[in-house]
Amino acid sequence: MTLRLVAAVLVAACVVSAIGVVHARHEHRQLYVDMTRLERARDELNIEFGRLQLEQATWAESNRVDQVARTRLGMKFPAANEIVVVRP
Amino acid sequence: MRFVKTSGGSAKKPRSRAQFSLRNRLMIVGGALAVCASILVVRAVDLQLVDNAFYQQKADARFLREVPIATSRGMITDRNGEPLAVSSPVESLWADPRELADNPAAIARLAAATGLPNDYLARYISQRKDKEFMYIPRHRRINPAVAQKVLALGIPGVSSQREFRRFYPQGEAVSHVLGFTNVDDRGQEGIELAFDDWLSGKPGTQKVIRDRHGRIVEHVDLVRPAEPGKDLVLSIDRRIQFLAYRELKRALLETGAGSGSIVILDVASGEVLAMANLPSYNNNNVSGSGRDAYRNRAVTDLIEPGSTMKPLTVAAALEAGVIAPNSRFDTSPGWIPNGKYRTSDFKNYGVLDTTGIITKSSNVGVSKIVKLLPNQEFYDFLRRFGYGSSTGSGFPGEAAGLFPAPAAWSGTTKQTMSYGYGLSATPLQIARAYAALGNGGRAMTPTFVKGGQSGEGTQVLDAKVADEIVHMMQTVTEPGGTATRAAILGYHVAGKTGTARKSSGGGYSRRYVAFFAGLVPVERPRFAMSVVINDPDPSRGGSTYGGGFVSAPVFARVMEGALRLMDVPPDDIETWLAAQAKEEARRAREAGPSRPVVAAAAGAAQPAGARR
User: Fold this and answer.
1) Do B169 and A81 touch (CB under 8 A)?
2) Which CATH number does B67-233 carry?
3) Given B89, B242, B490, which is nearest A62 (Cβ)?
């Protein structure tokens, strides 16, 4: 009688653990899919950031800044006589 | 008897039949079957549990694939965090030729979408029809938007993969320092090569399930996460770099020179603030041709340092105690024998003191000084200043320079070396030696990385002597010196010009290298800079080809900007105030007698004033 009870318990435990394994496996896949999606989102953002940095650097390229300052904004470098030296 | 026997035999038959046992036979058959079955079971257990790896692998290979995860290369920034090299994703189109080969309609659509000639593409595919993978020609590393457009057509067998491409927003101004990468994103030149391991990431791997068409059905597992490359902060200052590049370009145009280099070092730390070379190239678009322009001349090219050597010769003699700052030397008649040759000055300078020899750049003077020095001592001194050995900057392809040991010297060598011939160095070595003079005699290892080598440096010269030499070099840029064009308003500049004839075919040709190496400001020097302009056209700029004419103005213009950019306080306010007072007096004079002059002046300043 007790032997039968033990067997029944063991069978039940076996079934439960099998379902547990399946569940864990499913969970793992689900989480992995989530993780890949989030990682992809992160990468996309990083890449977007890199692209924006690149764009900013291209706009801020020294030669271009120099040209714009001189031609469009009419700026020039102050000559010595246009600088006022304040004695400390 | 025989009969009996026979009958006896026949009599036995029923007996043996009687002995036949069905049970035994069944046992044997059953036993054999049981053995077979247990062998099968054992084998099954063996395959399932013990030796399962092989078939598991075979099974997985049918649908599981390990695919790489692309990773980006680290960014290179300048010392203020401005990006100099950035990796940006691009798409590479690829196709499975097996699927396309027998599908002319798909090839035609692909040809139309990619703009490739149809027959060329068909031939290209049929040549590879037993392969699984091919890049679509001329569609590697293309704009993702273009790749998406092709993919959207859904041509069978065509896919794309993400790769990273390097972009250099500063273009050719920094190209020699940065170098470039190849199509596989590995560094090929410059910093990209020197720090390749640091910059390149480790691509990861993931397991995926793929269907027959190679489409990914499911992501199963992450084998190894991708490690992106690490960023690198260089010691280069983008603004100073650009300034140096621009002024070098201007100087080359004005003097018709063939090539040139500029190196700017931070005196205290040995950091390279700028390193520009011409001719340059665009490292965003590296082609096979023009390899000559890829060379970072500032570290690879050896040149005879000419007169920039003289302050070092004088420093060696001062340190050895064979001369004093106020020693006097008679340089008349303007030449001195050197073996069977002559060492001559530009003209007869008569009696000069030690400072005067540097001010006037007298070959005769340094020849007389070096005569007082023992060979080995002179050699050791220059060795300590880094001549003849690599600076240790770690830049790929750095040259060590040529500096023969005293054993190999002939009778004339020492005297020749005292004014910079008979040995050769790179522009970086010259800048480093001058930085050591400005750093109280402490030589630092040049580095391209911000805060790179935090070494203490090595004391190569007594601090007091170094200070004396710097003040002697200050006279070079003051009235009466050889490089008044290197003067910067508001700052004391120490420097030395150099003009070296280029050696060719065993002799010296009529072509020249114009140098200027200097330190600024004289009180507590911040920057050391060497300017090398190779082969200026003597016919432009009159009769002058000298460093004082060609290279010194470049020094002044670049340093003026660098001092302002780095907020270095002027150490010579008096000259500045004097210039200002003079200007105010001129204005007051002009404003006094006639008003129209002022109106004219205002008119001239119209472009600037109109926007105010």
Assistant:
1) no
2) 3.90.1310.10
3) B242
User: What is residue B542's predicted lDDT score, i.e. its pLDDT?
Assistant: 42
Residue B97 CB neighbour total at 10 angstroms = 19
Provide the pLDDT for residue B233.
92
Residue B142's φ and ψ, nearest 5 degrees, are: -110, 170
% of chain B with per-residue pLDDT over 90: 20
Give the amino acid at A53: Q
Provide long-range contacts, Cβ within 8 A and 24+ apart, for B113-118: B113/B149, B113/B150, B113/B153, B113/B155, B114/B138, B114/B139, B114/B150
Is pLDDT larger for residue B152 or for residue B291? B152
Q: CATH fold of B238-280+297-571, please?
A: Beta-lactamase (3.40.710)
Q: What is the ipTM of this complex?
A: 0.70
- How many helices, marked H, and strands, marked E, lie in chain A? 2, 0
Residues 6+ apart with CB under 8 A from B563: B488, B491, B520, B521, B526, B527, B570
Q: pTM, whole model, 2 decimals?
A: 0.78
Segment B84-124, tens digit of pLDDT: 898 888 888 888 888 777 888 888 888 888 888 888 888 88
Delimit the domains of chain A by residue range. Answer: 2-74
Predicted confidence (pLDDT) at residue B612 exceeds the cutoff of 50: no
Q: A30, A36, A38, A53: which to substitute to probe chain B, counting the most B Cβ within 10 Å? A: A53
Q: Domain-by-domain residue ranges, chain B?
A: 67-233, 238-280+297-571, 584-609
> Annotated catalytic sites of B, by residue?
307
Identify the contact set of chain B against chain A, taking CB-CB distances under 8 A. 72, 75, 82-84, 86-89, 167, 169-171, 173, 206, 218-222, 238-239, 242-243, 246, 489-490, 570, 573, 576-577, 579-580, 583-584, 607-608, 610-611
